[in-house]
Structure formats: structure tokens, C-alpha cells
Amino acid sequence: MILVLLVVSAIALFLSFIYVHQNTLRISLSVIFAALLVTSIVFVSKNDGQHYGMVKTTTTTTQSLKSAGSSKQLDLLLYQSVGTADKHRVYIYKKTTNQKKVSHTTASVKTANQVKTTTATPKLVTKTTRWTYKSNAMKFWFGLANNDKQLIKRTNYFYINKNWVVLSTTQAKQFSKLMKQQQATLKARAKVYVTNQVKAAMVKNPTMSKAQLAKVQKAAAAQYQANAIQSMLKTVKASK
């Protein structure tokens, strides 16, 4: 409405100055419409530059966080660097396990991302701050500027467990490639490792039952796999 008042007062000032011939009336109308015009310009400027009539409003949303990868053995939070200095990142994740297309954060200077460790269930907490009008009256006067709910900043907090791994998309591709390249070798080495662990366990306890041996085999296989994954992750992280 303030923009309408600005236009109307400008037109009225012009018409009164040109078409009103009676001096006293012309001067009076000109002063009134000039005052309205100047006042409108001032408040439009204050609304645009200083967000006059507005307040900062922050909302918080929480959603579940799932691994961006398809592997059941490794929980991944991926990111893609924006620019060459790695000052800004777009994080890639899933909201549900069966989600086919991954979600990602916004690539914007107004969006910040923080990764935090938690012992609770992984989650994504987003805090969004916007400019909103103080009242319906303020929205009535300045709403035509179309700046209601203008974004000030958005911060995404990724709460992940210690077993999660944060990799760039490039590192994730390198890791996947390395896994495929070493698959046969790892399988053979895993077999030897498990065999040695079983032998060592039998030396300590020759009377172990089949169930106990199976438990040792399973634990040894899981341990070798975890060690192998950590070794490959160390390699891809070092390469950057």
C-alpha cells in the first residue's frame, strides 16, 4: 500500500501543480502531496534498507537422518565442495532408508552446515531465520514489496554417530573403486585372518563347541572387514 500511496501522491502533486490555478489551493495541495510523497519515499527506503516494520523470526525443524550410501556396512554423510577453497559445502543425505533419490542442502552463502557427534539417533536439525512483518498493519502497508519471509540465514546441524563417515563425493567414488579393486584380495586375506583367529581360539580352549567356533568366525570376519574398511578410508581421505 505504501507503494500505491507513493505513486498516487506523485501523480496528485503533478496534477495539482499543473491544473489547479487558484494559488492558495495549489500551494496547499502541493505541500500536502509533496509531504505524502516524501514520507512514502522515506518509509519505502527504511523498509528496503533497514527492514522497517519487520522482525527476525527463527523456526526449527527436525527430521530423521539416514546414510547417503547404499552399503549396510557403512553409514555415510557425503558433501560436495562449492568452489575451489572448500569454504562452502553441499551435504548429501537421505531422510529414509528406502529413499531412492538423495536429498541435499542448498548451495547458498546464506546457508551454513555443521556436523556434530551424538550418541542418540542421527538427525538433521535446521534453524531458519527470516524477516517477517510485526503485524498485519505493517504487512498491509509494505506487503507489496514482496519481502515477507525473506531469508536471512539457514543453519543445518547434522547429528551423526561416531561410526558414521563423512566423505566428499570424490572420496566416496575412490572408496567404491578401491573396494571393487581389492575385493578378491580382501576375501582371500579375510579367510586367512579368520582361520588364524579360530586356531588361536582353539589353542586357548580346545573344547570349544561348534556354536562357539561359529561365533569366533563371525566376530573375526566382522573385525577384519572393519579394519579393511578403515584402512581404505584412511587411504582415500589422505588423497583428498
From TrEMBL:
The chain crosses the membrane at residues 26-44. InterPro entries: DUF4811. Keywords: Membrane, Transmembrane, Transmembrane helix. The keyword Membrane applies. Pfam families: DUF4811. This is DUF4811 domain-containing protein. It comes from Lactiplantibacillus plantarum WJL. The lineage of its organism: Bacteria, Bacillati, Bacillota, Bacilli, Lactobacillales.
